[in-house]
Each structure stands twice: as structure tokens, then as C-alpha cells.
């Protein structure tokens, strides 16, 4: 497994390097002078030159890129001149809130998909398949910016049992019971389309496995159907689910932007929206690179988990 991981690392690092170069160059091609925008309309030329020097914009493009890359490696990301505060602190707080939300939504998605998929093959009835198919279609068809307000209207306005938005005032650890109340609505909103996609793929993968020859052999040996599904077919279907899970996790992070806006959740998505709308280029530059890094890490973890479940991938990766 270690050799397989080392085999995949160079390509991941190459993607990160290419992404950092592309992000750096694209932001330099955006119309307008960042120093002038940061300084404001009434700024004097001297003030603009000071800001330009602080941002390093008076240096050549290669020197600017190498300086920025060195700052990223040392976590010296500078300040946000528009939103205010150190970029490291802003990103740290936003990333913590986003990770709590996305991990909760991911756990809900996996749990729901496992329960529904296994139940669909253990008790294959027409009404259950119809209900599952209808629920999956609705969950995928309704966008998060529609589901979010609907959840707030039902569970925070019509039946006021949960908070309409925000984060726990005492943090996520001090009062877990309060934290769960704040997490529930945004996590469900974020998890619905992902759980629907995972359920669909896992159910089909289980049905494919149950149609194979080894299942017939196991049944002829007197092994129970439930044991075949939970110990045999499910394990063989998990690599397919993991591949889909890696893709859906990326969509979770993308959907977090809308969910955080709907539930006033101060995470990375809300920070990206603020940085882009206010043209806070130093902050946007870091956030875009962080987004790519998260996608690369998720894909790497998915590939390693897939290889752990399927030895054929490890063998192919070493050959």
C-alpha cells in the first residue's frame, strides 16, 4: 500500500503545482489594478504605490509567483485588506466550520445510502423500490438553494424546533447537544443529493454482485442470503461506491457555498463569496489554491481506499 501511495504522490503534486501557477496567472489577467481597488477611489498615488509594494506587485511576475509559493509553504499568507485580519486566521476559522459541516453531511450520506441500499436488496419489494426511486429523483432534482429555504420554513418557522442558521455560540465541543441542532438542517440540505447518488450506485452495484456465480455457489452451500449480502456482495461493491464517493465529496464542497449562504454558516464557501464580490485578491488566491488542494487530497484518499479494498489496483499500480 505504501508503494502504491508513493506511486500516486508525484501526479498529485504536479496537479497542485499546475493549479497554483494557473490561479496565479489568471488573477493577474483580471481587469483592473488590485492595488487601486484595495486602496479605494479616493486614494492618492502614493497610497496606491505603498499598497502595490506591500502586495509585491512592483516586482516581476516570476518573482511574485516564487514569493507567493514560498509564503504558502511557510503559511505566511499575509493580510486581507478588505475583509480584514490575517488570511491564515480567516482561512483557519472558515475551514474548521466547513469541515464540520461537510464531514457531518458526508457521514449522513454514507449512512443513509448503506441502510437504504442494503434494505433494497434484502427485501426487494415493488413499493420499496418505488419509494426509494422517487426519493432519489426528488433529492437530485431539487437544488440546494431550494431545499435550504424549504427546510428553514418548515423546521424553523412553521415548526420552530431547530435554529434557522448560524453556528453554535459556544462552539461545537462545549455543548454537543446545541451543536447538533445548528448542524442538522444545513447537513441534511447538503447530504440529500449526495445520499441519493450514492444509494443509486450502491444499489445497482449490489444487484450486479448478487447476479454473479459466487453468490449462487454460496447459496448452494447453505449460506444465508443476508450473510451473502452483508459480508460478500457489499464488500465487493464498496470500491464502486468509493469512486462515486470521491466525486460526490467534491460536489459536497461545491454545494457548501450555497448551503453556507442559505444558513448563514461562516465557512470557506461564504469566505470565497465575500472575497470574490469584494475583489480581495490575496484572499481569493489562497482560497482557490486551498480548494484545489482539498479536491486532490480527497481523490488521493479515494484511490488509496479503493486500492486497499481491491488488490488488483495495487498490483496494477506497481506494474
General description of the model:
The chain is globular. The chain has 319 residues and is mainly alpha-helical. The longest helix is centred in the C-terminal third of the chain and has 38 residues. It has 14 helices and no strands. The protein has two domains: 45 residues, no CATH class; 226 residues, MetI-like fold, CATH 1.10.3720.
List the helices and strands and how they pair.
Elements: H1 2-29, H2 34-39, H3 45-55, H4 61-73, H5 87-122, H6 126-141, H7 144-158, H8 171-174, H9 176-210, H10 213-220, H11 225-262, H12 268-277, H13 281-309, H14 311-318
Membrane topology: Multi-pass membrane protein
Family: Belongs to the binding-protein-dependent transport system permease family.
Pfam family, one: BPD_transp_1_N
Brief digest:
This protein has 319 residues and is mostly helical. 81% of the residues lie in helices and 0% in strands.
Number of helices: 14
Task: Report the strand count.
Answer: 0
Mean pLDDT equals: 82
Q: For this structure, what is the CATH homologous superfamily of the largest domain?
A: MetI-like
How would you spell out the order of helices and strands? Answer: HHHHHHHHHHHHHH
CATH level-two architecture of the largest domain: Orthogonal Bundle
Oligomeric state: single chain
Q: How many independent structural domains? A: 2
Approximate helicity band: over 70%
CATH topology of the largest domain: MetI-like fold
> What is Rg?
24 Å
CATH class of the largest domain: Mainly Alpha
Instruction: Report the portion of residues in β strands.
Output: under 5%
Outline the low-pLDDT stretches.
Answer: none
Question: Which overall shape is indicated by the principal axes computed on the Cα atoms?
Answer: globular
